[in-house]
Amino acid sequence: MIAFFLSLSLSCSQNIIRKESTMTELLPLEKSIIHTDHNGLTQEEFANLKEKTIKAKDLSYSPYSNFRVGATILTTCGEYISGANVENASYGACICAERTAITRAVVSGFKSFRAIGISTDLKDKIGSPCGICRQVIREFGLNVSIYLFNVDGSKYFRVQLKDILPLSFGPSDLGLPEHDG
């Protein structure tokens, strides 16, 4: 098995989980947050999420970094909604794949998510959502499962948002109800 170490960089293109050693050598915190199961998804749902997430990279507009990212949301209604990163000459105007997918879901009437898949073109590494994307995902629930795939989906693992965004700020901090995501 391959070990992955979480990097907490705020840049999506630099926030990489590195291949280092064996799974048993992970730090205690990392052992507790990295999972290789499907967490309630059927085999068919998982396969669809993986396929759509990997294909979503084809939608990427990334002429500056050439770093394609695809994301797909599985809603609680069973719909799959994909997005890709969109770059801009004014780097601050770029939008990550995760936020593109979430925006598409919300404007399509979906605000409750079962899972989010994310994939990059990295071969031996697995990307992780940036800080801004983690906060946007947080808006729709702490219990959202995030599936992180390598370039072709041959390597993946699952994390829970609440584990990669501890002590988060959300709707309940403003006296509003939480999404059950």
TrEMBL record:
A cellular-component GO term for this protein: cytosol
Reaction(s) catalysed (UniProt annotation): 2'-deoxycytidine + H2O + H(+) = 2'-deoxyuridine + NH4(+); cytidine + H2O + H(+) = uridine + NH4(+)
Keywords from the UniProt entry: Hydrolase, Metal-binding, Zinc
Family note: Belongs to the cytidine and deoxycytidylate deaminase family.
Family annotation (SUPFAM superfamilies): Cytidine deaminase-like (SSF53927)
Active site feature: E98
EC number of the protein: 3.5.4.5
Pfam families: dCMP_cyt_deam_1 (PF00383)
Role played: This enzyme scavenges exogenous and endogenous cytidine and 2'-deoxycytidine for UMP synthesis.
A biological process term (GO) from this entry: nucleobase-containing small molecule metabolic process
Catalytic class of the enzyme: hydrolase
Domain CMP/dCMP-type deaminase: 44-172
Residue ranges of coiled coil: none
Binding site for substrate: N85, V86, E87, N88, A89, S90, Y91
The name this protein goes by in its record: Cytidine deaminase
GO MF: cytidine deaminase activity; identical protein binding; zinc ion binding
Keyword presence, Transport: no
Residues that hold Zn(2+) according to the record: C96, C130, C133
Co-factor requirement: Zn(2+)
